């Protein structure tokens, strides 16, 4: 097994830039908003170079990442347009806080993606006007709603995903009604394991999901997904990049357009995944069970 031979999807972090300061985001923890780390971004030429060898056979490109918001990327619309020109069957996915850019930009994004019924944008909206900013710090509600409306009104396929905390748990039904009135196609809520020890943004009362031991199953192998950071470095998956963005430890990142150019870390991890033996903690934590953590089997609740 290799991560290269069966790629169906590439998960791309186009930029580390983001206006928000979400409390448990790796970007905030690493101090990007305090200029402790330098922002990086994939431009159109780099995108073509790195994605070009795969583009004709890809089923999907997901613009999301660990550190930044894709809407902050200067060349995002150009990258999406080029991808569709090269492969008109490709699905485009995107996750965003929705507060960046203006209505015209979101109209253009809708025009680019609306021809493929499976392409979509996930808007991460954690409450209403009086609560969204508590976790999504610096996201302006008026901008977010105007941008979402522009995208939807111009044929974009939009999904509302909401993290539920103690401070917004009373608003779930109202959020659902707003999502329906704005014509979001999907509304989902989630209680995250990331916040159980944070008093400022704690989980809702009685809202902790069921926890079970889970047999390890590698997400990247299962879905045929490869991850590309905004620094233009490849990783086996977003979970490994997430772990290293917290620890500021880069041990991957070697270009692997050519299978033979993979370094020893890639080859070693592939062997361990094949055997399901001596897996790194990040793998067990994200795609299985460790001695201290188990999988929350009902984190997401589909409401629309």
Give a short account of the largest sheet. 9 strands, mixed
Strand order of the largest sheet: 9-8-1-2-3-4-5-6-11
Q: Architecture, according to CATH?
A: Alpha-Beta Barrel
Number of H- or I-type helical stretches: 11
Structural class category: alpha/beta
The helical percent reads: 25-40%
Question: Can you walk through the features of this model?
Answer:
The chain has 304 residues and is an alpha/beta fold. The protein has a single domain (9-210, 220-259), classed as TIM Barrel (Alpha-Beta Barrel). 32% of the residues lie in helices and 14% in strands. The protein contains eleven helices and eleven strands. A nine-stranded mixed β-sheet has the order 9-8-1-2-3-4-5-6-11. A two-stranded antiparallel ribbon has the order 7-10. The chain is globular and about 50 Å long.
In short:
With about 300 residues, the protein is of the alpha/beta class. The chain has a single domain, classed as TIM Barrel (Alpha-Beta Barrel), CATH 3.20.20.70.
Secondary structure blueprint with pairings:
Layout: E1 9-12, H1 26-29, H2 44-51, E2 60-63, H3 76-86, E3 91-96, H4 103-113, E4 120-124, H5 132-135, H6 141-153, E5 158-163, H7 172-182, E6 186-190, E7 211-212, H8 219-223, E8 225-228, E9 234-235, H9 238-247, H10 264-275, H11 281-287, E10 295-296, E11 300-302
Parallel strand pairs: 1-2, 1-8, 2-3, 3-4, 4-5, 5-6
Antiparallel strand pairs: 6-11, 7-10, 8-9
